[in-house]
Amino acid sequence: MSATLRRQTPSSYGTAPGVCPIFRTCGIQSAGDERHRCPFGDVGRVPSEQIYAEAKKLFGANGGGDCLYRLGAGWDCLKAIAPLERDLNTTVLTNARSNWGRVS
Hints:
4 strands, alpha/beta, about 15% strand, four-stranded parallel β-sheet, 3 helices
């Protein structure tokens, strides 16, 4: 199965605008560039339920897209990915490395 990515919604606690030009260079439109309201030093303590709720709201507010891109490896977003994909009916991409011992 293959898919063409044309439009994505970035979701980040930090510098999403810095990443959007990379996507544009590849021909991918970015819908919005709002950031989660969280002090940088607290990112690792944001519960996955809050990550889910804010990402879902952001995706809907920006008209969706072919995927939701969760930028930011400093937070625990892995537990939010499957519920977001199911509830938004889209693919969720992240740069967070997997730690299967912590995912339930």
